[in-house]
Write a structure and sequence with these properties.
Blueprint: H1 5-10, H2 12-18, E1 26-30, H3 35-45, E2 52-57, H4 61-68, E3 76-81, H5 86-90, E4 95-98, H6 114-131, E5 136-139, H7 144-157, E6 166-168, H8 171-185, E7 196-198, E8 205-207, H9 219-230, H10 232-239, H11 248-265, E9 271-278, E10 289-297, E11 300-304, H12 312-336
Parallel strand pairs: 1-2, 1-4, 2-3, 4-5, 5-6
Antiparallel strand pairs: 7-8, 9-10, 10-11
Helix pairs in contact: 3-11, 6-7, 7-12, 8-9
Active site: 200
Subunit structure: Homodimer.
GO biological process, one term: tricarboxylic acid cycle
Length: 337
């Protein structure tokens, strides 16, 4: 399901020969000078699917742009400082990736970030609604379970919402799941493909370990792996000892998803990724947004796949977390009201 940024970088020369940078789409990163944003911007500068990279943040963005501009891959890089310049950064963008906001610190949950990041995400959506209403929007800012509804509600208020084009990026959950499961099975990560459904915070993250081909996990292994996938971010926060959260792995995951979305937009077939989108999958349980595999195409989401078959423990996880996910979605919607 996941493509490799490294592999795509190896294809860079061939891709550029086939298509000039001027014909490739513009991608904007909002929050580009931050911990996630700088690494993400570096990876996008190396992508063969990005023609123009526009970087927006409160401060230091021109410096990041100048630094990236010295990399000898084709495609331009521009930096825009401050909220007043954001519209220029977003104008005509095909894809807007949004890691803006404050990071987690030790002891914080994603939900603790809500009061600060909710306002940031809403203000970005207000600018995007005018500057690039037809763009794809890939939202990283936590808590994603709430910020995606905030972004969607803001676009709705502006009359430009398209549910096929607003995504919560949950790809880090899949990269962690693939890494941890590969370690447990002593396999290469390229031979592991774990579907992760639900939301993007703690117990709302639902790795479908029963669907891992050839695995025969014990109940204890399932419990430990599920918990580690759900709370992998805490490992990084604790290991960094107050110096930050998961920035490098999140940047990688966001670049993977962005690259896949751009491939689908360019016409590549059978691009399937997990993403947190407006979905009917858990609507009867009060959740208008949910992550399952989705088929991507030129217009965004082309098909939303249902939940795969769940084991007894996975069904229990679903029943236990669905109320929390519904409440987190409602919190985002209510913020906009």
């Amino acid at each position: 399901m996941l493509s490799s940024i490294a592999r795509n970088s190896q294809l860079l020369s061939h891709a550029r020969m086939m298509s000039s940078s001027s014909s490739l789409p513009k991608v904007a990163v909002v929050g580009a000078a931050g911990g996630i944003g700088q690494s993400l911007s570096l990876l996008l500068k190396c992508s063969p699917h990005v023609g123009e990279l526009a970087l927006s943040d409160i401060v230091n963005t021109p410096g990041v742009a100048a630094d990236l501009g010295h990399i000898n891959t084709e495609g331009s890089v521009t930096g825009y400082n401050g909220p007043d310049a954001m519209a220029d950064a977003l104008k005509d963008a095909k894809l807007v990736v949004i890691p803006a906001g404050v990071p987690r610190k030790p002891g914080m949950t994603r939900d603790d970030l809500f009061n600060t990041n909710a306002g940031i995400v809403r203000s970005i959506a207000e600018v995007a609604a005018k500057a690039c209403p037809n763009a794809f929007f890939a939202i990283i800012s936590n808590p994603v379970n709430s910020t995606v509804p905030i972004f969607a509600e803001t676009l709705k208020s502006a009359g430009v919402y398209d549910p096929k084009k607003v995504f919560g990026v949950t790809t880090l959950d899949i990269t962690r799941a693939n890494t941890f499961v590969a370690d447990a099975l002593d396999r290469h990560t390229k031979d592991v493909n774990v579907t992760v459904c639900g939301g993007h915070a703690g117990t709302t993250i639902m790795p479908i370990l029963s669907g891992v081909e050839g695995a025969n996990f014990s109940d204890q292994q399932i419990k430990e792996l599920t918990h580690r996938i759900q709370f992998g971010g805490d490992e990084v926060v604790q290991a960094k000892d107050g110096a930050g959260s998961a920035t490098l792995s999140m940047a990688y995951a966001a670049a993977v998803f962005s690259d896949r979305l751009l491939q689908a937009a360019a016409g590549e077939k059978d691009v399937i990724e997990c993403a947190y989108v407006e979905s009917p999958v858990a609507k009867d349980d009060g959740c208008d947004y949910f992550s399952t595999p989705v088929r991507l195409g030129p217009n965004g989401v082309e098909e939303i796949f249902p939940l795969p078959s769940l084991s007894t423990s996975e069904k229990e996880n679903y029943d236990q977390m669905i109320g929390d996910l519904a409440a987190q979605i409602k919190k985002g919607v209510d913020f906009c009201k």
